Amino acid sequence: MTTATQPEMQQRESLKTAKHQAWWHIALEILLITALGILSLEGLFRVCGVGGSEFLEPDAVLGCHQLAGKQVTWRLEGYSNDRLSLAGRRDILHSLAKPAGVKRIAVLGDSATEGLQVPLTDTYCRVLDHLLNTNSKPAPFEVLNFGCSSYSTGQQVLQFEKDVTAYKPDITVLLYVRGAALQNCYNPYKRAAEPRPYFYMDNKGALQQDNSILIEQATGLKPHAVLDFLRRHSRIYGVFSQANLALSIHEKLYNKMRGWTTSLASKFQPKAASRSTRLFYPQQDVWPVTKALLHRLNKDCQAAGSPLIVMIFPNTIGDPILAVQIADLNSFSKQEGFGLLDLTPAFKANKDPSSLFLQYHFSSAGHKLTAEQLAAFLAIRT
Amino acid sequence: MLFNSFTYLVFLPVVVALYWLLPKVCRRGLLLIASYIFYMNWMPAYGLLILTLTVVNYLLGRCIAAWQSRRKLILAIGLIFNLGCLCFYKYANFLIDSLFQSSSWLHNKLGLPLPVPVNEPVLNIILPLGISFFTFEFIHYITDVYRGSQPVKNFWNFALFAAFFPSQIAGPIKRFQDFMKQLLDEPVFKKSSFQAGLFLIFQGLFKKIVLGDNLGQIVNAGFTHLDKLGTADAWVAVIGFQLQIFFDFSGYTDIGRGSALLFGYKVPENFNWPFLASNLTEFWRRWHMSLSTWLRDYLFIPLGGSRGGAWKTMRNVFLTMVLGGLWHGAAWHYVIWGAFHGAILVVTKEWQDLVARVSWLARIRPHPVWHWGGVVTTWFLLFMAGILFRSDNMPHAVTMAAKLFIPAHSATVIEMFLLSTLPVSLSLYVVFLLCSRWRESAPSLQPGAATPLLSRLNLWCRSSMPFQIVVYACLSIIILGFAPGKMEPFIYFQF
Asked: Which of B416, B460, B477 would best serve as a mutation to test chain A binding (most A beta carbons within 10 A)?
């Protein structure tokens, strides 16, 4: 049998003591270490600009909207570190009242218009503002960016009706992205759906709004003091939210497991609450619904005295469905009387098309080209 | 399945839990099934390939042991079979392309009447993941059995050796004697091994995701837009690549070794502070050690090693490195990368001989300046070799090398680096390395040390379960937070 040395005995003694700690001692230890861990992480993430990409909060009407005045550091694709305006938009602050002699251009869109992937000054709205106002004092044009990540065409139409008209735009531009249009409808028989207003065509061919998912998830969309605080101030919360987004884009298994969890959770909910609000209608063809939404927006724009221009996200990858949609939009725009600007030819004609995109979104060069195309189009129209 | 994927994050805990819950007799079977699921998750059909190679090599090993008089012939058949498979999957298109290019050149330039097809023929082959690694393990197995080692009797044990998922795709290249010993000893659950395994997995994920993948974005930007690179940009991209490949590969190895430890198995180390090497010979003793030792045992020594005099030694070193280069990838720039390393190794050997002969050089050799001068020179050589390794082709490599020395003002890549999380994460990693070195060696941290506060703190860190849980939780959140938007596959998967 070997004899333990003095240091070894000391070590054993300490381990023995550790095993016989009182419960409150252990609880206190856990509490202190956890608090220290959280504080250290928050500090580290703040120093590195990590976890600052949380920028949306729930909205009972639109599903979500941007957090007013939030400093956003975006690293998921490209890089930017800017503050959202106090009006809650990726833009500089514009007064609600239109200054005299100023022409306002309101731009609707999704993440491509919001442009978190590039610095604020490089977004096509800001570049367009600069292009239109070069050599003019005082500035006769104001370009207002209403683009918001994840917004469907339907949400953009509702946003126009809810928020944009108050700014009295003289021209309204909508950047049409096929991915955003796909979110206009949902399959009522699917387990999970993002909380947003959806649209469908009824038996008579009229456009109808379906708020059933918003109603179903109303509890989650209500203001919640703790979550609102975390969303605004916690970097750790931001990290989880960003990881959730990245995993849901790239990991099939993650999405499947989320589906299973949702399904499992719904089994434990009271029967009256789960799915009781859902409307059931045949699965929709997205394109007629989108066209009906564009028709509605055009009518809204005409009523507001703000002619509509639909700009089409460049089809550089040769998406056949988008090609058909572009052809259809050509005749539809003439029929409806709105302007149509297809960015595809300009992007394809560029010497280095790959430099115009990051992964899915415009690079700074892409934003610049978009602004130039739009400026030229506006010059012809006006 | 990628080690840095969500799928693996679910797969590993499930397999580990089942492994330790099941009775001992079922464990090997579970590991074998898990290994095949791991491999076939990528391309199910290639599970059949690994199975076929396993069956054939198992039979070859048994035959070599059984028919001693014909063992040389059987070994030759085995080598042809294994190398044939490797060549077919990895080098067929490279050979066809090289033949096509050279015959086109002869036809066009010299007017030789060669029947050159108009379009370059290409075989539609998808390289099976990890084929270079498991082929080398099979060659090691049949060669060692030929040299006198006992073959593996149990087929399922051999199949597990071949398919063991923690080291299946990109090594480390195992030795069957070590693995079989562990397998037959039947690993038992040890808390210390389990903790060490977890630590290695987290360390590997940090290296791969936080450092390697973020560096990859900077390096890709540099190597993709050569025309826009400034001189400083080019240096950042080239140095960044050397670090990227280290973090990527050593991260993979750490996750693999850590995963193996969770099952109670040890797989060989692959890296031992390679950037502290003061010459290229030492570098190869510290970098991808399992490949270096394989190349020494199954290529350099069979070629004659250092037995045939100085000239033959030089030739053998050079040839070994050229073939090592070709092993890395089926392209000429890999061959030239290998030749570059071979040439430098030969020069290093000659230089060391010269230093030993010249008395005044031998006197200044122990000085630290000499050592650190050697370290910096080795870095420089590695950066130059790295350009050959990373570039798509030779003209690309030449342009990049020129960018390093022709003054040009642009700071796109540097700006990208400074805006990224890398300045902080690299600093964190360096602090971690320094702390762990200090913790291992500092006398004040040993039990019963003169400064009891530090000693007790160290003991508490090692024994406190809440502390360890919080540390791992924080580390997971750091990895999540610092991860780039998209997970990248490991660089060595393509080899």
From this structure: B477
